[in-house]
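Operator note (shift B, R.M.): manual run for Transmembrane protein requested after the automated queue skipped it. Running by hand, logging everything below so the morning shift can see what happened. Input copied straight from the record, untouched. If output looks odd, do not overwrite the archive copy; leave it for review.
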Amino acid sequence: MTPFFYLVFLLLANESQVHSHHLHPSTVLTLSLQKKDFEMNDNHIMLNEKLIEKNHDIRNQKLGVFDILKEALIITFKNFNFIIFILLTSLPLFGFMVYYESFLQETLVETYDILKQTPGYSDWPVPKFIHNKMTKHVFYELLQLGFLYLVPLHLFEFCTVIVTVDLSSKIHAQERPMTLKEMKHRPICGARLRGTFITSIYVLYISTCTLLGLIWLVTYYFILENSIIEVFFAGFYGAGFLLLLVKYLEWSAMWNMSIVISVWEGIYGGEALALSDYLCKGSKGRGVLLMFVFFVWGLGLRLTCLYFGCYEGGIGIVAQISLFCLGNVLKWVVCMVYFCDCKKRTLEKKFDEEVERDVEFAA
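Run finished. Output pasted below as returned.
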């Protein structure tokens, strides 16, 4: 019986060390102290090993730009039902975009004809010769173009975005193809739909202001590039345009993620934008590159159509809008995958910080 009572005494001594601070250290046996030190060192080693193993797994799981694009392509094209569903829901946007893009490109051509007649000088903030040469017809076209962009185009695109993000997120979470019946099950509606719409209004307002700044800078650069006297100012406006373009792409990734957050988490408005900004920390470079891919895609299609005069009618404008809608769907699937990866990284970072605190405490 003696070994048994001796073991009980050791356990009580260890327990009293942890929970009772008023006991004098001399009351604890030297053997129990050595045992406790050995256990703490052993736990310290195990925590370090777990931390190293976890960090190794995290590095292997990180998604780069090409990995995100690849994952988006897999989600989009390996699910035939998803393609059919998105095709049906994108028909209203497709029909409106054919009209809107034709009208936009005709207006761009007319505006270009006005700007290329620059006299070699400019006034701030709007050159006087633009006031003189811009007819009421062009002015009304610009107003109509602004209305079409802010109201009907935003509504049609919002409907497509809601369906795309909702379905692609379900496919991504289940990691298997979905039937049409499953896609119709529990659609997004109610408070979450209203919250997502509020977030989209926030994004529309901020992005429109930024786009107006880009248009203003590129207009001045175009006016001043042929002026020898004001070549310095032309370079200044050109550099400003490039800097703002990079920030616009960075912010676009954050804005788009805020809409994904509203669909997924039910958080909307300023809170969704703040959470998006928090999740994007450390991943803004990837966001810029991802948005740059789709920026080049849309700009390339538009410039090609302008060069060949597809806006005058025919199959060319239909082909352009078809490819543009395809790129739009891929962009939002990419934003969904990008959000999931950023959220996973943030959670893993918090886990690592907790493990490191445990290791420091155990040390």
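Quick read of the result: Residues 1 and 221 are 95 Å apart (CA to CA). Confidence is low (pLDDT under 50) at residues 1-60.
Leaving this for review. - R.M.
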